[in-house]
UniProtKB/TrEMBL annotation, chain A:
GO molecular function, one term: iron ion binding
EC number per UniProt: 1.17.1.4
Transmembrane residue ranges: none
Name of this chain's protein: Xanthine dehydrogenase YagR molybdenum-binding subunit
Domain of life, source organism: Bacteria
Record key words, sorted: Molybdenum, Oxidoreductase
Keyword Transcription: no
Organism this protein belongs to: Thermocatellispora tengchongensis
Residues of the Aldehyde oxidase/xanthine dehydrogenase a/b hammerhead domain: 18-133
TrEMBL record, chain B:
SUPFAM superfamilies to which the protein is assigned, alphabetical: 2Fe-2S ferredoxin-like, CO dehydrogenase ISP C-domain like
Keyword Protein biosynthesis: no
Record's keyword terms, sorted: 2Fe-2S, Iron, Iron-sulfur, Metal-binding, Oxidoreductase
EC top class named in words: oxidoreductase
UniProt name for this protein: Carbon-monoxide dehydrogenase small subunit
Oxidoreductase listed as a keyword: yes
UniProt domain 2Fe-2S ferredoxin-type: residue ranges: 1-78
Length: 734, 157
């Protein structure tokens, strides 16, 4: 019986509830005494030059082994951004010169025998700066916004000006979204051992292969000299997808000291260590006929990039042309250089940011026309992908609308704002569409079977905590035809067959495709051995007639003629096979592959205090086939809660005078807590997709996309007040 | 200084401890018990929650010297040999674990709740877990796990 699609418990669960799972910062020093600790000293200004570093006291402090500044740091080679490391990474080569580009940039690193000694010595380093006036936020630099050649010409479909001119109704609104930080519970941790033969890196990363290639390039090594391991990862959400300075400076420290060095960033440092979701301003114009059919969508965004990165990492309006069947669409984006880190993806850098404005504007259009917001979206359903003109590989959006609305009770909604109450609270219902591109990465898997009948599947991928270990196990067990208990997954090591990054909602689709190919290849290989083996009951059978069930191989039509994998393997050597998944090329695509969803939410607003609570949320998702409903459901609920944070509580606040972050801790940056969380329901609308292996579209980002705009819209419905500036804090409602 | 502390039922004498270091540091770096996690180091996230003389505390906020002569129980000490505590079992079964980094602290906190209050209401569960942040699961499945564990413990009693 197939185990794919069954809600088995996560395979590494026991390790995680007993404290036995080893995360990067937990790893024992491998020969007992060699491990030392590094602590970064971070810039106290956001722009300027370092004029002096007085490290005398620090060097004299107890246990200090090394102190690295731009004067003595190893020289690094620039990394060709796009070719090596994908779309987003830290291009600033730290500790190379006296320039400071953002507050929190590392300006010195102290290495000492204990963490306490390193922390103490770091506090003794005195840095003087010639401070310059920084560009603190997008708003301070907006007059100097520039077009990036990378995103020229802008996306244009049809004639937007004409579409706006022909519209009976035009909505023209501007929305802002703040910088936000990922804050996985595990901060950024790296341990490096540097010997003449090999550099071994344990690191909390979403992409071991990128860290390997990045370190090799930066330090002038061959990739095969670098081994990167990341077995257990304490979350990431995009923040560990990029190449970032903590890993670079740890490697420097290991090279200079010859010791195994560990660096774990503090929570405060996480506000300037792994990048942020960029602050943005989004102007949206929607043109529509009286019946709500769209005649034009125009979106003009301005987003931040860092002061040192000329190639902005992503274009937040890239998916705006996709959700609705509109003949005239144009999106543009300009960029502002700000004294902050380079933005990185955070649970969808495109749809999760750029559709906030579009989905709110759709709600404003619905209110203007007196059309139900859900009905407005149905009327604009796209029969094909408007962006590419291609048919959908599969599309369950209408069923997401229908099932989500029914479950939520949407038809009971009184369209009038401020019309629904629960005692003193104003009640609002809102909804939004969610879409997310469905892709995968080149990924190789190896499945090996031993004489005890036990098998292992290996992929150099990562498990962010979403359940990659578990789904690899399920898919490989099915493909080989063994019980799931007989299959074990290994990942997170560049010595394993190469996997892709765990980002972009690509992981499940990538590892499932590769694990299936490898498992099937091994099954076919063992069948060929068995039918050629005179000692086997299967001897002489046609390989096509051999079936496998629960680890037992038999001839079609005669179950008694067969034997178990273990018996075959005992007579033959250990067997293995590989599988290589290659994603379909983007050029020449014949279908558009997307995941779809619909969010329905209820908020209760205290009219006197302006506080908003989400009290109910239903999210319907079509992401193809779900490999494991238990891990998937938990992932989606968590994604909705991150959307609640995006809508109501999370913003990285910057002091406009000096560009320093003013709420750098959980005390000031409010991730949702237990009491913020309502009753959340996830509905999976399953679809077979003949164009995607296993019909796996990925869940990580669609879990969050749609939630924040649904909440914005619900707050309008509750209060009659439209907030266009995230997050919706009480002051904006009073 | 030398720190005498009982950890998970075992008497430990730890030498060369600096009085100012945290109990979390002693557990993780000196006693080889990294189950308790360091995620904020200032008592905001609950990932390092351990029992100190039977009371849940953030180990990052307890100075090593304060643990002198006292008993500590960590996530590594919740199971009896190979037999998981019902709270641990329930977290796996309910899907309350994702990345697992907040899990050790949540387990200790939930374990304490059920010891004190075998039939907690939802409001009581939320209150008890109010100091434990989780970024992956969205808490809903954690509530399910605590309800499940409480029901099992009550059934077994």
């Amino acid at each position: 019986m197939s185990v794919v699609g069954r809600p088995i418990a996560r395979v590494e669960g026991r390790l995680k509830v007993t404290g036995a799972a080893r995360y990067t910062a937990d790893l024992p020093q491998d020969d007992g005494k060699d491990l030392v600790h590094a602590v970064a000293v971070c810039a106290a200004v956001a722009k300027g030059r370092i004029t002096s570093i007085d490290a005398r006291q620090a060097r004299a402090a107890g246990g200090v082994l090394e102190l690295i500044t731009h004067h003595n740091a190893p020289r690094l080679r620039p990394v060709p951004a796009q070719e090596v490391l994908g779309p987003a990474h830290e291009t600033l080569l730290v500790l190379q010169d006296d320039r400071v580009h953002y507050s929190g940039q590392p300006v010195a690193v102290v290495v000492a025998d204990t963490l306490e000694n390193a922390t103490h010595a770091a506090s003794l380093v005195r840095v003087e700066y010639a401070e310059e006036r920084p560009v603190a936020t997008l708003f301070e630099g907006i007059d100097d916004a520039f077009d990036s050649p990378r995103y020229a010409p802008p996306t244009t479909i049809g004639d937007v000006d004409r579409g706006l001119a022909d519209a009976a109704v035009v909505i023209d609104r501007t929305y802002t979204t703040p910088a936000q930080h990922h804050h996985p519970m595990e901060t950024m941790a790296t341990t490096v051992r540097w010997t003449a033969d090999e550099v071994t890196v344990h690191v909390s990363t979403q992409t071991i292969s990128m860290v390997r290639d990045g370190l090799a390039t930066t330090f002038g090594l061959r990739p095969e000299q670098v081994r990167v391991v990341s077995e257990f990862l304490g979350g990431g959400f995009g923040g560990k997808a990029a190449w970032c300075w903590p890993s670079v400076v740890t490697a420097m420290a290991a090279r200079l000291t010859g010791r195994q060095v560990r660096l774990v960033t503090t929570r405060r440092q996480m506000f300037a260590a792994t990048g942020q979701r960029p602050h943005s301003v989004q102007r949206v114009r929607l043109g529509a006929r009286r019946d709500g059919v769209l005649t034009a969508i125009a979106q003009d965004c301005v987003g931040e990039t860092s002061a040192f990165y000329d190639t902005p990492p992503f274009y937040i309006g890239a998916a705006t042309p996709v959700p609705y069947g509109c003949p005239n669409i144009r999106t543009t984006q300009r960029f502002v250089k700000v004294n902050c880190q380079t933005p990185v993806p955070m649970r969808s850098p495109v749809e999760g940011v750029g559709l906030v404005s579009v989905e709110s504007a759709m709600d404003e259009l619905a209110a203007e026309l007196g059309v139900d917001p859900l009905e407005l979206r149905r009327r604009n359903y796209a029969e094909r992908d408007p962006n590419s003109g291609l048919p959908w590989s599969s599309n369950g959006l209408l069923e997401c609308y229908e099932r989500g609305a029914r479950r939520f009770g949407w038809p009971e909604r009184n369209p009038e704002p401020r019309s629904m109450r629960d005692g003193r609270y104003l009640v609002g219902w809102g909804m939004a569409t969610a879409i997310r591109h469905a892709g995968s990465d080149p990924t190789s898997a190896l499945v090996r079977l031993g004489a005890d009948g036990r098998a292992v599947v290996q992929i150099g991928s990562q498990d962010l905590g979403t359940g990659t270990f578990t789904i690899m196990t399920q898919v490989a067990a099915d493909a080989l035809g063994v019980p799931v208990e007989m299959m074990r997954a290994e990942l997170g090591d560049t010595d394993l067959p190469t996997g892709g990054g765990s980002f972009g909602s690509h992981t499940a689709a990538s590892v499932a495709a590769a694990a299936r190919l490898a498992g099937e290849a091994l099954r076919a290989k063992v069948i060929r051995i068995a039918v050629a083996d005179e000692g086997s009951p299967l001897s002489g059978a046609s390989p096509d007639d051999v079936l496998v069930d629960d680890g037992y191989l038999f001839v079609r039509g005669d179950r008694s003629r067969g034997e178990r994998y273990a018996q075959i393997l005992r007579r033959n050597r250990l067997q293995s096979a590989t599988g290589d998944h290659t994603p379909p090329p983007r050029e020449g695509a014949t279908v558009a592959r997307w995941a779809f969803g619909a969010d329905f939410t209820e908020v209760k607003v205290d009219p006197e205090l302006g506080t908003v609570r989400v009290t109910r949320h239903v999210k319907a998702i079509e992401a193809g086939r779900i490999i494991n409903p238990r891990t998937a459901r938990s992932q989606v609920i968590g994604g909705v809660v991150m959307g609640i944070g995006q809508a109501l509580t999370e913003a990285t606040e910057v002091d406009r005078r000096d560009a320093r972050i003013t709420n750098a801790g959980f005390w000031g940056y409010h991730v949702p807590v237990n009491a913020d969380v309502p009753d959340i329901e996830a509905i999976f609308v399953e679809r077979d997709d003949p164009h995607i292996p296993g019909s796996v579209k990925g869940l990580g980002e669609i879990a969050t996309i749609g939630t924040a705009p649904a909440i914005l819209n619900a707050v309008f419905h509750a209060t009659g007040k439209r907030v266009r500036d995230l997050p919706i804090t009480p002051d904006k409602l009073l | 200084m030398r720190l005498n502390v009982t950890v998970n039922g075992r008497a430990e004498a730890v030498d060369d401890v600096w009085e100012g270091e945290s109990l979390l540091y002693v557990l993780r770096e000196r006693l080889g018990l990294p189950g308790s996690k360091n995620a904020c180091e200032q008592g905001e996230c609950g990932s390092c929650t351990v029992y100190l003389d039977g009371v849940p505390v953030c180990a990052c906020l307890v100075a090593a010297g304060q643990a002198e002569g006292r008993a500590v129980r960590t996530v590594e000490g919740l199971a009896e040999g190979d037999r998981l505590d019902p709270v641990q079992e329930a977290f796996v079964e309910a899907g309350a674990v994702q990345c697992g980094f907040c899990t050790p602290g949540l387990l200790v906190q939930a374990h304490d709740l059920i010891e004190r209050n075998p039939r907690p209401s939802d409001a009581e569960i939320r209150e008890a877990l109010a100091g434990n942040l989780c970024r992956c699961t969205g808490y809903e499945k954690i509530l399910d796990a605590v309800r499940l564990a409480a029901a099992r413990k009550a059934g077994a009693a």
